[in-house]
Design goal:
6 helices; about 15% strand; binds zinc ion; Arc Repressor Mutant, subunit A; two-stranded antiparallel sheet
């Protein structure tokens, strides 16, 4: 089964119709490199802006796509291997994104919940830094 079919089945299993224009958006997503913006998808033919936004939102809700806030504050998307709540490390040099396996601050959230009296329903955390490839490249430059 292709990724396109697998994602279509997932959507249908949740009661969403997979129209030809939604299929076009999913196909465009699967052609993207590591991460992409909504504008990247709009450059593909086959679906209007509203469909692109709606399809992205649906795919995010069912955990096929995750949102990544880049260091420049632009919102990117990426096909998720996790399917559930998780965080990312983002390279501030090359923009490489890696999923973290699990929520790293679940304990902190529980503490903050009792400290504030809030029932905390969500949070967003990205980690920024330099990936190992960029670090070894800059070491090579320094070594001349
Ligand atoms: Zn990098
Ligand atoms: Zn992710
Ligand atoms: Zn978390």
């Amino acid at each position: 089964m292709s990724d396109l079919e697998a994602i279509s089945l997932k959507l249908e299993a949740r009661g969403h119709r997979v129209t030809p224009s939604r299929r076009a958006v999913i196909a465009a997503i699967l052609q993207q490199s590591e991460h992409f913006t909504v504008d990247d998808l709009l450059s593909y033919q086959g679906a209007g802006r509203a469909t692109v936004f709606r399809t992205i939102r649906l795919l995010t809700e069912i955990g096929v796509v995750c949102r990544v806030l880049m260091e420049d504050a632009s919102l990117h998307y990426r096909v998720s291997e996790r399917g559930k709540h998780h965080h990312h490390v983002v390279c501030s040099d090359c923009g490489r994104v890696q999923d973290l396996d699990q929520c790293v601050i679940a304990d902190v959230m529980r503490e903050l919940s009792s400290a504030t009296g809030f029932e905390i329903e969500g949070h967003w955390l990205e980690l920024y830094g330099k990936c190992s490839q960029c670090r070894s490249r800059s070491r090579a430059v320094l070594a001349g």
